[in-house]
Amino acid sequence: MDLIDQIKTIAQNIEKIKGGSLNEQATKNSFIMPFIEALGYDTRDPFEVFPEFTADIPVLKNDKVDYAILSNDKPIILIECKCFQDTLDNIKHTAQLHKYFQNTEARFGILTNGIVYRFYTDIDKSHVMDTKPFFEFNVLKFSDSDIHELKRFSKANFDPNSLNDAAQNLLYTKEIKRLMTEQLTNPSPDFIKFFASQVYSGRIMASTVEKFTEITKVSLKEFINERIAERLKSAMDSNEQADFMATESAGLNEQSEIAVEDDLIVTTEEELEGFYIVKAILREVIDVTRLQYKDTQNYFGINLDGRVSQTICRLRFNSSKKYVGIIDASGKEAKKEIANLDGIYGVGEFLKDRVIHLTNGKYVEELRTIEEIR
Q: Of 171, 199, 289, 363, which is most buried by a Cβ count within 10 Å?
């Protein structure tokens, strides 16, 4: 079962029982332990998941962190748990995890109430837990990208070095998004001055900033609304002849290659991981049980209902460079080079549009020409 499916099962269970009166221990048993297991860790193995972990350090006295995930007998992730009804904003909760973090070898800490999971590390100062989490996961409300980030903490994918880089990027991205949101709703004088200086030739005075504050607000709102309108308009466009050509071409191309002997084909873990990422992306627009794959010597094809004429994309990972191939409206395969598996998310909208085309017979503008995908 994919991680996203396991998380959804946990979410369904939470919805059923969260109305009851549960204490912290019940929250651990019903919410948190299944979450840890979904990440691939064995909660029944104390050498992997150690409950009530006590570090052999005097300053901690007899305080214990709820769970420590171990590797080679050393803690790699600390998990401090609270009752699902508790808010994680209580500074005492963060202080507890901070204390454990600073006095153990673990470089990642999680504070959770079984619904929200806040992930911390030591970006600002080595061995000192940051005051702000670099990632927050809500079991009851998450996106495909959230699942992708969460997978980094699974037993199969855990790599502290790459996680440190990812944590920095996530933290900075989150803060920049927060600043952008603030500027969209309440632009600062410096923000106003930047735009005013680009279009106004006079001296930027206090009165100028005041005048351009409202102009900037209106401009930002209109810009966003126009982008949304353009997206909706393009989604309504269709081209029946191009649709027919794309389907026929996809079928012919696929059929010409499936004659390769199966014993010459090796499906790699990377291809399967790519398949799981595509499933996570398309979950919003299609029942993922309809998604299947057909591996060939030249590419790893992902289709609907096992039909080669319903190809969604082709993962070409058999050379030094990686490509995602999508069939465009002219019937050609548009190849997009990606640096790593994360690059699949960059063509997520194209993948969704391709599925919309295959199921509803519509193409949006983005898939009309091969050049646009490139």
A: 363
